[in-house]
């Protein structure tokens, strides 16, 4: 199972532009790419909250979210592209006989659209009003049910502390990707009990060792 943003796809450019479109529209200061990078990982509502000035009223947060979503839905593939080696990783896992899925805190429609555009994995689960965001395990369980798999058989690959918590909460084996929105140093600082891959090729080696 893969997270999407920062794991399969480098979406940072489109997220940055969409956040700053919302900030400009609302009359708030724009955010740097690094600020957006550090704010990503726990759903778009939290991305917007972290991008707005502290103490922004909830009504303004919701308006900024709506502006962001409208813009992002129309501009989600301007700069977005798979990370190096990701398509090869997916092909190799398919050849090895693995079932594949995407589980992301991005809204469900965008997860499915981007999967169709770039990968064709098929089982692609995102946030809906009925499913709480990661690190709650609900989206993982929905994907496992669709695949007919158990969590003890699954590896969850993601690039943030939220993904680590998601894997642990759902009973999946965590594997962290150091090519995404967190650095190797930031991931190592999360403690132990998981492996970190510095590249897609290294992730494939680790998965194959896990069996």
Key terms for this structure?
about 210 residues; alpha/beta; three-stranded parallel beta sheet; globular
Quickly count the helices.
10
Morphology = globular
Sheet-strand content, in percent, reads: 5-15%
Query: What's the rounded overall pLDDT mean?
Result: 95
Q: Report the sheet with the most strands, covering strand number, pairing sense and barrel closure.
A: 3 strands, parallel
User: What Rg, in angstroms, do the CA atoms define?
Assistant: 17 Å
Question: What are the segments in which pLDDT stays under 50 over at least 5 consecutive residues?
Answer: none
Global structural class: alpha/beta
Secondary-structure element order, N to C = EHHHHEHEHEHEHEHEH
How many beta strands in the DSSP annotation? 7
Share of residues in helices: 40-55%
Distance between the termini: 14 Å
Across the major sheet, the strand order is: 5-6-7
Can you tell me about this structure?
By secondary structure, the protein is of the alpha/beta class. The chain is built from ten helices and seven strands. It has helices spanning 12-26, 33-39, 44-51, 58-74, 86-96, 108-118, 138-147, 161-170, 184-188, 200-210; strands spanning 9-10, 81-82, 102-107, 124-127, 155-158, 173-177, 195-197. It has a three-stranded parallel sheet, sandwiched between helices. A two-stranded antiparallel ribbon has the order 1-2. A two-stranded parallel sheet has the order 3-4. Strand 5, helix 8 (161-170) and strand 6 (173-177) form a beta-alpha-beta unit. Helix 5 runs parallel beside helix 10 (200-210).
């Amino acid at each position: 199972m893969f997270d999407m943003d920062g794991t399969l796809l480098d979406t940072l450019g489109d997220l940055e532009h969409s956040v700053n479109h919302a900030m400009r529209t609302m009359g708030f200061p724009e955010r740097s790419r690094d600020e957006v990078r550090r704010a990503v990982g726990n759903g778009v509502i939290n991305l917007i909250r972290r991008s707005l000035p502290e103490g922004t009223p909830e009504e303004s947060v919701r308006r900024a979210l709506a502006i962001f979503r409208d813009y992002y839905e129309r501009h989600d593939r301007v700069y977005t592209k798979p990370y190096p080696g990701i398509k090869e990783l997916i092909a190799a896992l398919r050849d090895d006989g693995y079932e594949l899925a995407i589980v992301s805190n991005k809204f469900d429609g965008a997860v499915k659209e981007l999967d169709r555009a770039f990968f064709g994995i098929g089982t692609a689960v995102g946030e809906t009003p009925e499913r709480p965001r990661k690190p709650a395990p609900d989206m993982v369980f929905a994907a496992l049910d669709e695949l007919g798999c158990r969590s003890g058989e699954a590896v969850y690959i993601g690039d943030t502390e939220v993904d680590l918590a998601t894997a642990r909460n759902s009973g999946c084996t965590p594997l962290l990707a150091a090519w995404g929105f967190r650095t190797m140093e930031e991931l190592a600082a999360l403690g132990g009990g998981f492996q970190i891959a510095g590249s897609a090729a290294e992730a494939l080696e680790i998965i194959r060792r896990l069996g």
